[in-house]
Design brief:
Layout lengths: L7 E4 L3 E3 L4 E3 L7 E4 L3 E3 L2 E12 L3 E5 L5 E10 L5 E5 L7 E9 L8 E4 L4 E4 L9 E2 L6 E3 L4 E4 L9 E3 L2 E3 L1 E4 L8 E3 L3 E3 L3 E3 L5
Length: about 200
């Protein structure tokens, strides 16, 4: 087990989380980690601070096994002057959960970042602390839906309406359990698959 909760960590290249490894910063919400490349692996990741995947070329991201990866804040950004793509790798059931906010692109970047969501499940806003839990608009971000599923919501109502990022999704769900919440599309929502109001159990 590796716990970075008291440190700011910068990984100059790729990071692989081995099958028997646990990266756990849940004891403190202040840790910050920047990975300047690939972040993948079969291990477990639970980080309550801010993680940035900053790429200079097209890169892969995500769990490759059945373990879920959980973040408080997750940012995909681009250090070059041309659009770069982060692609979610295939897994055997591992989901990505983002409690507070998922950013695709970063304010100040000179070119956009694209997220290819692959075939994975993305659960957004699980902490119930942010009315804008998914944002593509910092610096020209974009979403490639693939065959993925996005679920907005938590078991805790947010103070205010929750914005659903305007994008093309494959499967989209929002709301969770008995929580009463208003979900407002930012703009046009295009669905290639299914939509469910009331949330997903993933």
């Amino acid at each position: 087990t590796f716990d970075p909760h008291l440190n700011a960590m910068n990984v100059a290249g790729n990071a692989t989380i081995a099958a028997n490894a646990v990266v756990n910063g849940s004891s403190n919400g202040t840790e910050a980690m920047t990975v300047n490349g690939v972040l993948t692996g079969a291990g477990t990741v639970t980080l309550a601070g801010t993680v940035e995947i900053r790429i200079a070329a097209n890169q892969n991201f995500g769990p490759t096994a059945a373990n879920h990866w959980s973040f408080k804040n997750l940012t995909f950004s681009n250090s070059t002057g041309v659009v770069r793509t982060v692609t979610r790798v295939a897994s055997s059931g591992g989901d990505v959960h983002v409690g507070h906010q998922l950013l695709v692109s970063k304010t100040g970047d000179t070119a956009g970042t694209a997220l290819n969501a692959g075939s994975g499940f993305w659960k957004i806003g699980t902490a119930g602390t942010n009315t804008n839990p998914f944002d593509l608009n910092q610096a020209g971000g974009s979403l490639v839906a693939g065959t993925s599923s996005f679920d907005y919501g938590s078991g805790t109502a947010v103070s205010g309406d929750v914005t659903i990022q305007a994008a093309t999704y494959n499967n989209l769900s929002f709301g969770y359990g008995s929580t009463v919440e208003n979900f407002i599309p930012e703009g046009a929502l295009i669905l290639n698959g299914d939509m469910a109001a009331g949330g997903s159990s993933g």
